Amino acid sequence: MQSNYFNRLSMSNAVSGFSKLSKDEKINWIAKEYFSEPTEAVSLLKKYWNSDAKIQQLHDEFIENTVSNFYFPLGIAPNFLINGKNYTIPMVIEESSVVAAAAKSAKYWSTRGGFKTTVLSTEKIGQVHFIYKGDAKKLEQFITKINSKFYSDSENITQNMQKRGGGILKIELRDKTNFIENYFQLHATFETKDSMGANFINSCLEQFAKTLKEEAATYKLFSEEEKNIQIVMSILSNYVPNCVVRAEVSCKVEELADKRIENPHDFAEKFLRAVQIAEVEPFRAVTHNKGIMNGIDAVVLATGNDFRAVEAGVHAYASRNGQYSSLSHAKIENDIFSFWIEIPLALGTVGGLTSLHPLVKFSLEMLGKPNAKELMQIVAVAGLAQNFAALRSLTTTGIQEGHMKMHLNNILNQFEATEEERKKITSHFQKNTISHAAVVDFIENLRK
Q1: Active-site residue 403, yes or no?
Q2: Which residue has the higher pLDDT, 219 or 10?
Q3: In whole numbers, what is the pLDDT of the chain averaged over residues?
Q4: 171: left (phi over 0), alpha (psi -120 to 50) or beta
């Protein structure tokens, strides 16, 4: 019975020892507690288990308390010409029209010179945050004196990274007492090569903190109070303003012409104004940058990287000048149209899910097994392509026409349309404006 394997704490669905339950026990408890049809709930969860037991176990062990898999589509956007090399880019996303828009941008620019990319820097950051009650000048002299010991004490952590050309770049003291009383930090920079480096950086930082405490306790120039340094936390930063990649496209203004751009000069000017608005208007910039992240997050997910870390760092970067602003920029000079993005991306192609998740390995192999710098460039291009597609639609036909066409399938699936109904509905909305209400009305009339 249920009471044999968990202890109810209250009548509000609280449970003790949930993590110790078996997978089936977790599912049965959830189904009984929260669903009017427990059997259907259990069946639904198990329907999404992988039929390969080894793959399912792999997924189960990625996180805690796993009960099923939550699938997102893996889409493909071909025809990306990046620095003269062709790529087909994997994208994991649930939003309709994103993959199609990226693919259209890729094909459009493939005949106009393609995308050009440059990695500007690859520096990662970590900090030891601590409280020191004493003379700031004495602390500065102390850190200078023991600086080399931070490196030597962490050699057991850094030796393998150093063999790959990475390691600790710099460690410096930063006085933050103007923000919080007695607050200082060790601000450290790292090169982590092809790994994202979170575990490496955090391990180094925790060793720095240990060294700091031990050395301070025996430093003769410190008073007893000064020796008692309090470590608050040691943690990497996902804000990486010196781990930046640039991606750009450019061509003569007249070369922008295609079947949707009859007057390329008018289009270029209007496109430029759209970017300028996003540069100065935060309400527009947030949505503008969200479109960029549609492309970036989709590739970050497909390649097993941490999209939450990327999102946080990117949006902080967009605010670095005191106001949230556009991540992309455009100009027209000497009748040349240029559109570019500079964006911080801390990514890895080794470690983490890259060696565990079968579809991550598939995605990386499809990309030609890129190193971290190459992946930064591919991801930045996906963001720029997505942004170009969105702005092109906004400044020509409007965003909803294409988006709603792609969204039509979702509506049809929601109402479980038959194949015959799909044909009639699709035919009708080739000539009529698509909206959720209009599709629903048409379906209801069709079924009468």
Answers
A1: yes
A2: 219
A3: 93
A4: beta
Active-site pick, 25, 60, 95, 123: 95
Angstrom distance (rounded) from CA 364 to CA 387:
23
What residue type is 190 in one-letter code? F
Reported in sequence order, the residue ranges of 93-229 that DSSP labels E, i.e. its strands, are 116-119, 124-131, 167-175, 183-191
Task: State yes or no: is 306 an active-site residue.
Answer: yes
290 carries an active-site annotation: yes
> Is 311 among the residues known to form the active site?
no
Of 112-126, 230-244, 349-363, the range with the lowest mean pLDDT is 349-363
The rounded distance, in Å, linking the Cα atoms of 328 and 292 is 8
DSSP string, 263-313: -HHHHHHHHHHHHHHHHH-HHHHHHHHHHHHHHHHHHHHHTT--HHHHHHH
Catalytic-labelled residue, pool 116, 265, 290, 428: 290
Going by their DSSP bridges, the two strands 230-237 and 124-131 should be labelled as antiparallel
Condensed to tens digits (0 to 9), the pLDDT of residues 190-227 reads 999 999 999 999 999 999 999 999 999 999 999 999 99
Mean pLDDT for the stretch of residues 279-286: 98
CB 196 within 8 A of CB 346: yes
Contact 97, 77 (CB under 8 A): no
Q: For residues 157 and 312, is the Cβ–Cβ distance under 8 A?
A: no
In this predicted structure, what is the pLDDT of residue 407?
67
The answer to whether 357 and 378 are in contact (CB under 8 A) is no
For strand 124-131 and strand 183-191, is the pairing parallel, antiparallel, or unpaired? antiparallel
**pTM passes above 0.85:** yes
Of the candidates 191, 194, 297, 306, the residue annotated as catalytic is 306
